[in-house]
Amino acid sequence: MFCHFHPSPLGIIRLLANEHGITGLTLASQREDDDVDPDWLLTQEPFIECCYQLDAYFSGSLTRFTVPLAPQGTEFQKQVWTALRSVPYGETCSYKAIAEAISNPKAVRAVGAANGKNPIAIIVPCHRVIGADGKLTGYAGGVEMKAFLLKLEGSLAADC
């Protein structure tokens, strides 16, 4: 497992990767203990393109991430995370819409749970999922971070 820290407008982002791609993206303040080989903390190679794309995203010039991803989870979680990546930049959807997108319309609550377990925030845009009533619902990084990301993407009014 490779680890890298990168500055962002939200604070320091902690990136994790393996030989297949990015496996984690969290704010360093949300950090959990991981089994990361300290010798690999110094390597930046798996992260160069990811950091470039994150910087472009935060500057408003990137709307779709293309870095290789390797999230770890159940098959159901991976289905949900794949569906999240199809929600366009600048748009939002409901948990029900994601459940329908994975051909499991009764799995709304399970979709919510999988959304909450998303290990690769921002790149896998779980922040684009909002309540059926249009309200911002829970977010691992906090509702303020979710609002920041949605405003950045233009899908939330600046005064919200």
Task: Give the arrangement of secondary structure elements.
Elements: E1 2-8, E2 11-18, E3 21-27, H1 48-59, H2 75-84, E4 93-94, H3 95-101, H4 108-116, E5 129-130, H5 143-153
Parallel strand pairs: 4-5
Antiparallel strand pairs: 1-2, 2-3
Report on this structure.
- About 5% of the residues have low confidence.
- The strands form 2 sheets. The chain has a 3-stranded antiparallel sheet, covered by helices on one side. The protein has a two-stranded parallel ribbon with strand order 4-5.
- It is globular and about 40 Å long.
- The chain has 160 residues and is of the alpha+beta class.
- The longest helix is centred in the middle third of the chain and has 12 residues.
- The protein has 5 helices and 5 strands, in the order βββααβααβα.
- The chain is 31% helix and 16% strand.
End-to-end separation in angstroms reads: 39 Å
**Would you report the number of β strands?**
5
Count of helices?
Answer: 5
Helix and strand sequence:
EEEHHEHHEH
> What would the principal axes of the Cα set say about the shape?
globular
Q: Which strands sit side by side, in order, in the main sheet?
A: 1-2-3
Find the structural class using helix and strand composition: alpha+beta
Point out poorly predicted stretches. Answer: 35-42
**Percent in helix:** 25-40%
* Structural Rg: 15 Å
Largest sheet: 3 strands, antiparallel
Strand content: 15-25%
